[in-house]
Amino acid sequence: MKFVITAGPTREPIDPIRFLSNRSSGKMGYAIAAAAIEANHEVVLISGPVNPPPPAGAKLVRVITSDEMHEAVQAAVRDCDVLVMCAAVSDYKPARVAEQKIKKRNEKFSLELIPARDILKSLPQSRNFFVVGFAAETNDVEEHARAKLATKNCDMMVANDLSDPNIGMESDENAVTIFSRGGESAKISRASKKTVARELVKIICANAKKVLTKKF
Length: 216
Ligand code: C5P
What we know:
Strand content: 25-35%
Number of strands: 12
Radius of gyration: 18 Å
Oligomer: single chain
Bound molecules: cytidine-5'-monophosphate
CATH architecture: 3-Layer(aba) Sandwich
Largest sheet: 8 strands, mixed
Helix content: 10-25%
CATH class: Alpha Beta
CATH superfamily: CoaB-like
Structural class: alpha/beta
Number of domains: 1
CATH topology: Rossmann fold
Low-confidence stretches: none
């Protein structure tokens, strides 16, 4: 199968030297890319700015902003079988990017933010590829993940519980619950991101094969 996997954070510029971003390390997305390659799948890895070296065999597309990630995903999904949106894409971006460095003043300052384009929501409703979203939640994990599965029109939603600071973002370990459209759920208990990724790729492939009309 051909996988398109997004990883890492995006950066939304404020002025020439400042940006809004988040703590995503890209480790989970890179581990999923490595696990998919190991299972003999073709991988396009669309990555925000992170440090880990890309897994050998992945076609790497580097992006910085949510708009760049949006365009890279639109282009890559034209001929893919599975899209895994593991990237922590910014939900908001500055309404304007200052052309020059914003000067410090001794008074309150507020930045106007507008919603960034939602990449998952902008995918076509009718498509022949399987879509996996991620939900990083600090509370009411199941409720929020199921709501995102529906509103973001995904086939599967992988929920990270961020209430445990020892796993998930930036960590080398993770534990996830996977929610599917049919109402089923599955848990992958705490393990290295490499192990979680291998298990996830197996679950994604098994479910994608049921849904896609193309035969593998
Ligand atoms: O709404 P929230 O950001 O929590 O949703 C997370 C999921 O949505 C992830 O799969 C992420 O990659 C995706 N996302 C997106 N476009 C955005 C923000 C998030 O596709 N602008």
